[in-house]
Amino acid sequence: DRFWQNLRRAVGWNVQYAGAVEPQRRLAPHAHFAIRGTIPRALVRQVAAATYHQVWWPSVEQRVYEPATAPQWDADAACYTDPTTGRLLPSWDDALDLVDADPDADPVHVVRFGVQVDAKGVLAGTKDADRCVGYITKYLTKQAADCHDVTTSRQRAHLERLWQELRHTPCSERCANWLLYGVQPKKARPGLRPGNCKNKVHKRETLGIGGRRVLISRQWSGKTLTDHRADRREWVKALLGVTTAADTAPAGGEQRHAWELAKPTDPDVAPLGHRVLRAISERIQWRAQLDAARRNQPPPDVSATATTQEGAA
Questions:
Q1: How many independent structural domains does the chain possess?
Q2: Is the entire prediction scored with pTM above 0.70?
Q3: pLDDT in tens, 172-223
């Protein structure tokens, strides 16, 4: 978000983008984006080099406690205390005040882009455009852990070390892992267990990529979600070669059916479990029919852009 803010300020117009974030083999996040319009490549590199984000939190350089000896909740004081001395842990606001009062304090994290920024111009209707679209979208339907296979002992050791580190690193102001560093999380409550934060940034499958992986600006295509659903429905119907009564009904004709939501108490409504299984079965049949139609004929061109520019950081 900070990069797009800076880029828009630098070029002076509302840059629109679409892309995805995926981990490299070394598990560092890597981004691929398409930008509508033309921007000098040198400017893209300058903005990427100048973009950073600082996180001003209490220090996490050294743990005060271990998960097995984490602070305990004191119901009378309504806060966490030292398991040995019973001393109250400083609140989140008090810990931030100490950071503000320290003239030599440094941010806990400073996030920057790497040195590799590859910006290329792409014209619609060329082989490069199809390759660009495929390159950007190939990870859209994958989980972060599925992008690369772990095949060597060195890769497994690296993944395990990174995961163990992420398990006990605070991910937000309310993360239970702050108890390991002698600080109460913001809005602390009983039952917090360091090393067991439920946020997906700590999970082995995400490895730190806890936010949205598919990123797109609001005005990228100039269409609403309703427009996209209608386009997708027409694309599927054209691919399958089917028509509906609404397609063949004369203009201004009377509607033959009336639709209303069924109620759970209606006698012809099946139990919830049956309805779920039927919906899954229908989806599987639709997917099989769509895949078969795709194999028989190439899909139509549904590109929403005339020109794009790809930038990978």
A1: 1
A2: no
A3: 999 999 999 999 999 999 999 998 888 888 888 777 776 677 788 888 877 7
Q: Can you say whether the dihedral through the CA atoms of 220, 223, 226, 228 is positive or negative?
A: negative
Q: Determine the structural domain holding residue 167 and report its residue range.
A: 2-216
- 280 burial via Cβ count (<10 Å: 0-12, 13-18, 19+): exposed
